[in-house]
Amino acid sequence: MQKPRNRTWSMLVALALVSTMLTIACGKTIGETIDDATVTTRVKTALINEPNVAAGSIDVDTFKGVVTLSGRVKSNEEATRAVELARRTTGVKDVKSTLQVIPSS
Fold first, then answer.
1. What is the mean pLDDT of the chain?
2. Residue 18: inside a domain, yes or no?
3. Cα–Cα distances in Å, from 3 out to 7, 8, 10, 11?
4. What's the predicted TM-score (pTM) here?
């Protein structure tokens, strides 16, 4: 039977290894992951609060502070406004847009 202290030590080593593998696999630290989630939430909130932007049709992804906006918008003005809002958001380092302008018929 394994002693409780050895079991605890084994669990800590296993946890450290798993944490390291997850960090390497994602390319981000746990802190960066939390920061990116916060930035994504802030950008989405800004888009939702803007009446001239259809936030529901815009996807927001953040990686190490770089925000990527994707989806469909109705005009170039809407796309420009979405990018402006994202750039003004706290924590955003850069904004990339792959928004497609699909005018409504």
1. 83
2. no
3. 6, 9, 11, 12
4. 0.70
As given in the structure block, the two tokens for residue 40 are 């994504």
What is the spatial distance between Cα 53 and Cα 47, in angstroms, rounded to a whole number?
Answer: 6
Does 2 reside within a domain?
no
Higher pLDDT: 28 or 81? It is 81
- CA–CA dist 8, 74 (Å, integer): 57
**Residue 9 domain-assigned (yes or no):** no
DSSP letters spanning 66-105:
EEEEEEEESSHHHHHHHHHHHHHSTT--EEEEEEEE----
Mean pLDDT confidence for 3-25: 61
- Residue 73 CA, chain-centre distance (Å), reads 20
| Domain assignment of residue 49, yes or no | yes
Q: Round to the nearest angstrom and report the end-to-end CA distance of the chain.
A: 73
Average pLDDT rounded to a whole number, residues 47-65: 93
Strands 94-101 and 66-73: parallel
